[in-house]
Amino acid sequence: MGNGKPATQVLFEDPKLQQELVHSALAAVTAIHGEETRAEALAALAPNLPPELVPDAFAAAQAISDETAHATALTALAPHLPTVLLSEAFAADRR
Q1: Most exposed of 3, 54, 55, 89 (fewest Cβ within 10 Å)?
Q2: Using CA of residue 35, residue 48, residue 23, residue 2, what is the dihedral sign?
């Protein structure tokens, strides 16, 4: 890139490009068929999600039927959930 920075660092310095990459990553994660793999990918992506994508990630986590994988995804997402979704997660867990 000519500035001495790794390409990945340069990509994530551009907010618009970063947002596009995270949108694409979430779409790819939700298309993963294996629930354990999908949960692990959601967990890895969670800290990088902008607030507007958290509800989509939460919906993807809620769609996971395997209890362990479901817990993995929700545990990673919990610190990023708005109060209403956090309440929904707790309510669903009690059912």
Answers
A1: 3
A2: negative
